[in-house]
Amino acid sequence: MRAAVRDVDPTTAFSSVRTVNEYAVAQLQDLRQYTALLSLFGTISALLCVIGIFGVMAHAVMQRRNEIGIRLALGATGASVLRLILRQGLLLVATGMGLGMAAAAALTHVVRSFLWGVTPTDPVTFATVSAALAVLTLIACYVPARRAVKVDPIIALRVE
């Protein structure tokens, strides 16, 4: 292209020639960096969420060890104890997700300029993220609940 322009008018100067693809890549570079950074922060926050829920549920199970031991000694099944602990954890998670979705819906104007092809209150996105967080927190609640089922009633009652 430079040679063709020089053949037509040798006095014309231009410094850079880029293809449309090169121009588009350069324009989207900042957006890609922001997206990568936001994805990293989102992953870290989801990991911290799972670790926090696991810690809270493990602590709650340890505090209720005697109660769980009594329930098992009186004939409660492992499945009923598992449901009890999972219900408690999922109630906390549902409350947090409800508040989080309300806050996210209220703050969508902040990310509106970063979105292409979706609306800030896209129901599919909200549902997908909620389902992913629900699965992660169910796993985080399941491990302490599984430990609660394995509590030996005699040892749990003897500790007091």
What about the largest sheet? none
Mean pLDDT: 84
N- to C-terminal separation? 87 Å
Count of the separate structural domains: 1
What's the alpha carbon Rg, rounded to whole Å?
28 Å
Query: What helical percentage do the residues reach?
Result: over 70%
Strand elements, count: 0
Helix/strand class: mainly alpha
What structural keywords apply?
single chain; 160 residues; mainly alpha; 0% strand
Outline the structure in words.
α2 (20-63) packs parallel to α6 and α3 crosses α7. The protein has one domain. The radius of gyration is 28 Å and the shape is rod-shaped. It has 160 residues and is mainly alpha-helical. It has seven helices and no strands. Helix content is 79%, strand content 0%. The longest helix is centred in the N-terminal third of the chain and has 44 residues, at 20-63. The relative contact order is 0.14.
